[in-house]
UniProtKB/TrEMBL annotation:
Residue span, ABC transmembrane type-2 domain: 20-246
Principal localisation: membrane
Domain of life: Bacteria
Highest classification ranks of the organism: Bacteria, Bacillati, Actinomycetota, Actinomycetes, Streptosporangiales
Localization: Cell membrane; Membrane
Name of the featured protein: Transport permease protein
Protein family: Belongs to the ABC-2 integral membrane protein family.
Transport is among the record's keywords: yes
Protein's membrane topology: Multi-pass membrane protein
GO CC, any one term: ATP-binding cassette (ABC) transporter complex
Stored PROSITE patterns: ABC_TM2
Entry keyword 4Fe-4S: no
Length: 246
């Protein structure tokens, strides 16, 4: 435990020394929300949205964007880089196991994503009057599942691509479809019903629906939570089966 704590402490210092990565994980989603919120039309109630505003829909979207940036863009290159440079292989000959380093990276990127999510919720509330989630417990459950799904997808990407450049390619293949499924380009709630039903089978499409339901004060549908949890389990299985230390 002391060795793992030491690794986590050292990795934390390295993590905060990466301003570019921190910007995309923590700052960028909230900046995007701020830009969208400054558009007057996005702050007007819309009958097509059940009286809600576009900026209300984009708070859960920016929350998912933070998770995607952390899990799919930031985490895989770090894991692949450690393996590519032989750091994991060398650690296997020391009392500190490579799993301690990988666990530290997952904890740090998960914490960064959750911090970014809370920042987006806070800015949405204070700057644009977006209501806080009506069902806090349901929102927390959906957020944790979505975070685990994003990190599991990042670990799976790192297991499928053996080099840092490879993770960039594989990550991009997953990145843009997941952005679409999360509603970054167009909120899921305004998409055609048929497309919404298709996206509900994707991890971030289901998570988007679950977060939106909790935002409106309802407990997220079991199907949406179940799809997110199922994807998490599947991606964890892929990561475990395919990951190589060398």
């Amino acid at each position: 435990m002391s060795a793992s704590a030491a690794v986590l402490k050292a990795e934390s210092r390295l993590f905060v020394r990466e301003p570019v990565s921190l910007f995309w994980i923590v700052a960028f989603p909230t900046i995007l929300l701020t830009i969208l919120g400054l558009i007057p039309a996005f702050r007007e109630n819309s009958p097509d949205l059940g009286g809600r505003r576009v900026v209300d829909l984009y708070v859960p979207v920016t929350v998912l964007l933070a998770l995607i940036m952390s899990g799919l863009q930031a985490l895989p290159p770090v894991l692949a880089g450690y393996r590519e440079r032989g750091i994991l292989r060398r650690m296997s000959t020391t009392p500190v196991r490579p799993a301690s380093l990988l666990g530290a990276q997952i904890v740090l990127h998960g914490a960064g994503a959750l911090g970014a999510a809370l920042l987006a919720i806070l800015v949405g509330r204070l700057a644009f009057g977006v209501a806080l989630p009506g069902h806090l417990l349901g929102y927390a459950v959906a957020l944790v599942l979505a975070t685990l799904s994003a990190l599991a997808m990042g670990a799976a990407i790192a297991s499928l691509a053996r080099t840092t450049k490879g993770t960039a390619v594989v990550g991009s293949i997953f990145f843009f479809p997941m952005m679409f499924a999360a509603g970054v380009y167009v909120p899921v709630q305004v998409m055609p019903d048929a497309l919404q039903r298709v996206l509900e089978f994707s991890p971030f499409g289901a998570a988007s629906q679950a977060l939106d339901e909790a935002s409106r004060g309802d407990w997220p549908e079991t199907a949406h939570l179940g799809v997110t949890a199922l994807w998490t389990a599947l991606l964890v299985w892929v990561a475990i089966r395919r990951f190589r230390w060398e």
